[in-house]
Amino acid sequence: MNAIGSPYTVAASRRMTPERYEHVLAVAACAAELAELHGGDRREAETAGLLHDYARELAAEELLQIAESRGLIRYELERRVPVLLHGPVGAILVRSELGVESLSVLRAIETHTVAAPGMDQLAKIIYLADLIAEGRNCPIAKKLRMVAPDDLDQALRLALAFSIRYLLKTGKLIHPQTVAAWNYFLDKR
Ligand SMILES: [Fe+2]
Hints:
This protein is mostly helical. It has helices at 9-14, 18-37, 42-51, 60-69, 77-80, 86-98, 103-111, 121-132, 141-147, 152-169, 176-187. The N and C termini lie far apart (36 Å). The protein binds fe (ii) ion.
């Protein structure tokens, strides 16, 4: 698969291992497909898919340092689990380094790991595509692949429930924004 004729492929590949680059290409393709099915913007979906892990290879200290200097830290647990910051830091970097200005794309990159209440269509698509793109085999992927083409909100609820259940089961911290997203999308039913 090749991406897509996007102007951002080279920039993305420079920031990533070949494996991760393959993953973002798969997410971009999956997101473009979902956007088309749901009447969204295919181009924006490709861009967000390609760039969602732009900051994923940064070391924890670097993520923390950028997040601190840009005032991105909102919860103490982000200092304890700096990898959770690769979304917000990625959004900042693709804006400053690549000139991406679409708020929807930036927000989708920002929220793709911990989710957020009020995620727009593109943010939902990227969150889901990250779980169901080719090469992903999380236990809920199969179910999500069936639901996402019809109902993004329902797929998102399933994904959030899975994620929260997994975090509880494995005794991990849960980002408050993930819980807020769960409450928000449950109310939307
Ligand atoms: Fe990510």
